[in-house]
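Renewal narrative, Specific Aim 1. Our central claim is that a sequence can be written position by position from structural information alone. The example that follows is taken directly from our test logs and has not been curated for this report. It begins with the structure tokens describing the chain, in the order in which they were read.
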């Protein structure tokens, strides 16, 4: 029993020493391990930062722009989860089946900020989550097409709202 107890602590000590050496090697700036470590923050930031085409500034009243954004999301097949005009936040989701054991869910998150009198900045993020075999993966949508479709439908909605009603 004493031998198994000593063996456990020796293995624990060796594994702690190996982790310490690995961390020191990464932080030292020498060797191949530090090359990958220096690129890690940039790679992670790229994965979680929305694309540049996801932000637009529009002319219009905040209430009208927000309502048009909600209609644009619904026209793309999204169901609104959260609609908070006071905070300028809109969240929506749409679920699609991918087969017998999986599913795909697209989400849309919009943040609306009033910049100046009659000017509203919209920051849009599309994400996709795929469930398959009991595992879920999630990623930002970097493809430009859904962002362009959303902003085109938003512009159409704003233009339609500005048209006078003819009796």
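The sequence written for that structure reads:
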């Amino acid at each position: 029993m004493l031998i198994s107890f000593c063996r456990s602590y020796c293995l624990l000590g060796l594994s702690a020493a190996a982790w310490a050496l690995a961390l020191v090697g990464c932080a030292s700036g020498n060797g191949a391990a530090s090359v990958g470590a220096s690129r890690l923050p940039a790679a992670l930031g790229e994965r979680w930062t929305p694309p540049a085409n996801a932000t637009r500034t529009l002319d219009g009243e905040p209430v009208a722009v927000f309502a048009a954004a909600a209609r644009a999301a619904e026209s793309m097949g999204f169901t609104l989860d959260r609609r908070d005009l006071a905070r300028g936040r809109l969240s929506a989701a749409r679920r699609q089946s991918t087969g017998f054991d999986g599913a795909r869910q697209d989400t849309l998150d919009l943040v609306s900020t009033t910049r100046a009198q009659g000017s509203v900045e919209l920051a849009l993020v599309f994400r996709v989550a795929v469930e398959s075999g009991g595992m879920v993966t999630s990623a930002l949508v970097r493809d430009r097409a859904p962002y362009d479709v959303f902003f085109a439908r938003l512009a159409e909605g704003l233009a339609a709202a500005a048209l006078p009603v003819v009796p």
